[in-house]
Amino acid sequence: MQSLDTVFQKKGLTEQFLYHVYSYLPTPGKSWDGGNDASVPWISCSDEAFNVEPAGANDFCNNIFTANNSDFNRWKRYYEGIRNASIFIQRAPECKELSAIQMREYIGEAQFLKAYFYFELMKQYGPISLVPENGFTLEQPIDEILIGRNTWDECVDYVDKLLQEASLKLPNERPSADFGKPTAGAALAVRSRLLLYSASPLFNGNTSYADFRDKKTGKNFINQTKDESKWAIAALAAKQVIDKGQYELITVPKDYDTPELPEHVISDPDFYSTYPTGAAGIDHYLSYANIFNGSISGSKNTELIFGMPNMSIERYCAPNKIGGYSSICIPQKLVDAYYMINGKTIEEGGSDPDYPYSQEKSGTPTTFSSYLLPAGVYGWYLNREMRFYATVGFNKSYYVGSSSTYDDSKNFEAEYFPGGNCRYEVSGIWMVGSYRYCMTGYLCRKFQHPEDSYRYGSIKPKVWVDYRLAEIYLNYIEALNELTGSYTIGDKTISRDPAQIRYYFNLIRHRAGLPGISLAEAGGDIEKVRQLIRKERFIELAWEGLRYFDVRRWKIANEEENGPVTGMAVYLKEPEFYRVVQVKEVVYAYKNFTMRKNFWPIPQTEITKNTNIVQNPGWE
């Protein structure tokens, strides 16, 4: 093993040390392996998904998790990453073989990674401990080494400063060979999310945490007085990313296979104008699907701000017939959130007054945008918006699997009822045991490419989309909508701006082929606009790991994450299959939220080692 004095004398060894810091990044999309500290549980733990595996995420969902659980313990991992990033920042300047430009960029990368690790800890555990820049020495008294937790605002200020410093050192663009390394825009995008979260009700004047205090100083870890200017700061942070002009929403031009826009949409006067003014001229299905399914490489994805290679989740939400595991399912709640093609909700837009809409099956196959809607598809799944078809795999949903050399594993309609083609055991596939199948009747196809097949086939390379421009647009308009006054931050003055809210909201809506909102609607009741934005985040950002944090920071998790998981009656054959029921196959198919689940428990081993650390409320 090389000593640090030796490492930072050589360019190659210095670079290897930095690559090692990168190894502490999470495994994106890996939502099932609780024993792996690189796993990311947010999709499985939210109300947008259900994991059929009994332990790990479901223990947390069911509120039977304890501070002694080892699942998804990322505390030690990220503090090790922070320590190594700090060492690099302190010692790298010793390397005389690095040019000034290389040194500046490498320091920026380490600052980004350090801020990223801190933010990941904050997202999971709330206010955390900020470690001194130079670490500790053996000569220091034990009380100085066993530090307590900082306040949330102190953590935000520190991480914000790191991200701003990193953004000044990092390049604006990367060659394709450097995909996965941060840019200046990536640092600013992380900052946008950080400041949006900090402005939100969970962290901004949350009196529910009045008794959550430091043992020694008595200071509140969560501030007790709401500060609306935090929304202004968050809005400006998002606008800074937008104003770089470096990113743009993915759009695919319309061709002969693109469906026509629905007739008689009168709520949006610009609807039939060419995108971006309106929704015309682009293929709405492919414009959304191609962000995630591997059709566009990460380095060519103009919407992607920061992503990671080697995504892992797609096989876990693929049907058994193509060698998938069918183990992470979509609940009925997300299915019902998607709009109809005309922009109405399912309650508003159906032809049947009974819940939720028409039960008539499609009579003939329909092809649009390279997507096949077979004959016999249940009426619940007809005339939906394009993001629905790009995301939800329902019963009779058509899978191509064109890379497979085995005819039985391609060009099929997925069947999730007893005896269906996605309910049998496949030799050699471990995730298709007696309870490992699609228990809601819905799988996520957002990360599936038409070529993908795990049986005698291949998988289109994909990347995990960690930060993208659509989220930044939604961050911006959410923060703008919350402003009731005018604020001057530095040299910028900002207030609620209906024209800006309408413009950026409609860029997302029109890209999806949906009517936008009017200027009057954007400037109307704040609560109505708030609910529109929240629903748009639920749909547009589905299964991207954000929903879990959204419902918590809005303080609505008690309403959204309490109750049974529902889906189709997968224990019955058609037509009885098409009934919304509670998932009954396993006893843990429910979500049980209490206030303590706003934050994960700090591992008890850490509390035992350092008695100055206050455990999160409810986990004592």
In short:
This protein has 620 residues and is mainly alpha-helical. The protein is 33% helix and 8% strand. Helix 8 packs antiparallel against helix 9 (184-199), helix 9 (184-199) packs antiparallel against helix 10 and helix 9 runs parallel beside helix 15.
Descriptive report:
With 620 residues, the protein is mainly alpha-helical. It has a domain at 4-218 and 597-609: Serine Threonine Protein Phosphatase 5, Tetratricopeptide repeat (Alpha Horseshoe), CATH 1.25.40.390. It has 21 helices and 18 strands. The chain has a two-stranded antiparallel ribbon. Strands 2-3 form a two-stranded antiparallel ribbon. Strand 13 (487-489) and strand 14 form a beta hairpin. Helix 9 packs antiparallel against helix 10, helix 9 packs parallel to helix 15 (469-481) and helix 15 packs antiparallel against helix 18. The relative contact order is 0.13.
Q: Based on Cα principal axes, name the global outline.
A: globular
> Main sheet, how many strands, which sense, barrel?
2 strands, antiparallel
Unreliable segments (pLDDT under 50, ≥5 consecutive)?
351-358, 426-433
Radius of gyration: 25 Å
- The count of strands amounts to 18
Overall average pLDDT: 92
Give the termini distance in whole angstroms: 41 Å
Under CATH, the topology of the domain at 4-218 and 597-609 is which? Serine Threonine Protein Phosphatase 5, Tetratricopeptide repeat
Given the helix and strand composition, which structural class is it?
mainly alpha
The percent range for helix content is: 25-40%
CATH class of the domain at 4-218 and 597-609: Mainly Alpha
In percent, how much strand structure appears in the residues? 5-15%
Number of helices: 21
The CATH architecture name of the domain at 4-218 and 597-609 reads: Alpha Horseshoe
Major sheet strand order: 1-5
